[in-house]
Design goal:
Number of strands: 7
Structural class: mainly beta
CATH architecture: 2-Layer Sandwich
Strand content: 35-45%
Largest sheet: 7 strands, mixed
Helix content: 10-25%
Order of helices and strands: EEEEHHEEHE
CATH topology: VC0802-like
Radius of gyration: 15 Å
Number of helices: 3
Distance between the termini: 29 Å
Length: 135
C-alpha cells in the first residue's frame, strides 16, 4: 500500500491544561482538533491562534492527514510514515482518529518532511479544506 499524505495549511498548537480542566476557548475549528485527558493533564490540539495568551503551548505545527479511511487491521502505517523522518532528525507528534492517522510536524520542518517522505516513496499533496465543518 502506497501511503498518501495530505498537508494542511493551518498552524496548529498543542496546549496543556491542568488535569480535569476544560478549555475556555473554541478549540474545535480547523482541519484537526483533539482533546485528550490523563490523570496528570488535559491536552488540546487546535488552531494556534485560538489558544489564549498565558496557556502553556507548543508549536506551531502543521497537520498531515493520511488519506483514509484506514482499516483497523492495517499494519505498518505509522512505521512507514515515521521511519523516514528518524534519520532526518524530524520530531513529530502522531495521533489517530477513528478513520485515519494524523502527524503534527513542526511548521518549520514541513517542507523538509515532505521531501523526505517523497524520497521514501510516499505521495504528499497539499490540501485546502473546503466544505468541511470548521473550515
Amino acid at each position: 500500500m502506497r501511503l498518501h499524505l495530505m498537508t494542511h495549511p493551518e498552524s496548529l498548537g498543542m496546549a496543556r491544561l491542568d488535569a480535569g480542566t476544560e478549555p475556555t476557548w473554541d478549540w474545535t475549528a480547523g482541519p484537526f482538533a483533539s482533546l485528550s485527558r490523563s490523570p496528570l493533564e488535559t491536552s488540546i490540539v487546535c488552531l494556534a491562534d485560538a489558544v489564549p495568551a498565558g496557556v502553556v503551548t507548543e508549536g506551531p505545527f502543521r497537520a498531515v492527514e493520511v488519506a483514509g479511511p484506514l482499516a483497523f487491521d492495517a499494519v505498518g502505517v505509522m512505521a512507514g510514515i515515521l521511519a523516514p523522518l528518524v534519520p532526518a532528525g524530524i520530531s513529530v507528534l502522531a495521533m489517530s482518529t477513528y478513520d485515519t492517522d494524523w502527524i503534527l510536524v513542526p511548521e518549520g520542518e514541513i517542507d523538509r518532511a515532505g521531501e523526505v517522505w517523497r524520497k521514501a516513496g510516499l505521495i504528499v499533496t497539499p490540501t485546502v479544506l473546503t466544505g468541511r465543518s470548521g473550515s
